[in-house]
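Need residues for this backbone.
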């Protein structure tokens, strides 16, 4: 066989497509066998390395799945707690809204009570001044006025006494009018006191409602804060698992990069091996052709000399159309 010098091998460039065009030098049979064996060894080595990498990734993934399950489970719990906290916040805000309305009503009652107090104070002052003027009850003053009036009208009294009695009647009339007016004011004061009692009773009811809603709001608020604290704790735990998971992914990422590199290298090797195997087929075909030609010549000589052929020799001569049946 002719031994040709090997041409320089072109380095293939893998562009990510399924087909790789590769050119290899022509090699003599011995070197061709060595080359194909080398390529097969490289493929086997890549396969072993890939298996080891996949095994390592599998180990990382096992721990990673556990971490991911824990992290996702905690995040699910956080979402549940967040929903509950939102419900408590809505209830708290509704209670606070009720409190705001009750406080507004309370302020109105306070204003009404304050106005009533000021009015009662003014009435009391007026009544007390009238009582100072009256200096007696209506019945007493009315009786005294009637008696003095009877004397003034019917009794025969001296002029001086009559003048004095007239002045006394004027004074008694003023005092009687003052006590009547004081009594009217007292009635009005009593009415205001009655109204004030109703207002105070309503205020007490409002205070009780405010206190009840405040307790309710505080309960919801404390429950919400407790949930937020629990959520913060859980988030920290989930973050810790996520950090561990990220570290695992950091370890896996370069392994995946090695996988891509090994697969790409194996693909190039297979293309190169296929090219050399094709050379081997051509060499074997040429050898088979030479061998068949030798057998053909031998069969023809034998047939000429003996006129006899084996079945294989007959087949060879028939295939080459050296004899016809």
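Answer:
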């Amino acid at each position: 066989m002719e031994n040709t010098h090997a041409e320089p091998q072109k380095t293939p460039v893998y562009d990510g497509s399924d087909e790789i065009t590769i050119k290899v030098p022509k090699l003599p049979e011995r070197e061709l066998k060595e080359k194909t064996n080398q390529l097969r060894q490289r493929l086997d080595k890549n396969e072993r390395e890939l298996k080891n990498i996949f095994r390592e990734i599998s180990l990382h993934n096992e721990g990673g799945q556990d971490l991911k399950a824990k992290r996702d489970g905690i995040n699910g719990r956080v979402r549940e707690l967040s929903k509950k906290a939102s419900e408590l916040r809505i209830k708290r805000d509704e209670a606070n809204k009720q409190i705001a309305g009750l406080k507004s009503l309370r302020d109105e009652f306070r204003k009404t009570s304050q106005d009533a107090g000021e009015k009662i104070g003014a009435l009391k002052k007026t009544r007390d001044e009238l009582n100072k003027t009256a200096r007696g009850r209506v019945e007493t003053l009315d009786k005294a006025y009637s008696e003095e009036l009877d004397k003034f009208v019917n009794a025969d009294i001296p002029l001086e006494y009559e003048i004095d009695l007239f002045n006394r009647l004027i004074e008694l009339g003023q005092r009687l009018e003052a006590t009547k007016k004081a009594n009217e004011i007292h009635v009005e004061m009593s009415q205001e006191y009655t109204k004030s009692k109703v207002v105070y009773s309503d205020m007490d009811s409002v205070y009780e409602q405010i206190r009840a809603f405040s307790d309710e709001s505080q309960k919801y608020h404390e429950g919400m804060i407790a949930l937020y604290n629990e959520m913060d704790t859980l988030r920290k735990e989930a973050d810790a698992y996520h950090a561990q998971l990220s570290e695992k992914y950091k370890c896996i990422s370069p392994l995946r990069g090695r996988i891509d590199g090994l697969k790409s290298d194996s693909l190039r090797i297979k293309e190169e091996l296929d090219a050399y195997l094709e050379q081997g087929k051509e060499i074997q075909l040429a050898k088979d052709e030479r061998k068949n030609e030798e057998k053909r010549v031998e069969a023809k000589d034998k047939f000429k000399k003996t006129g006899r052929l084996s079945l294989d020799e007959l087949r060879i001569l028939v295939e080459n159309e050296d004899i016809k049946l």
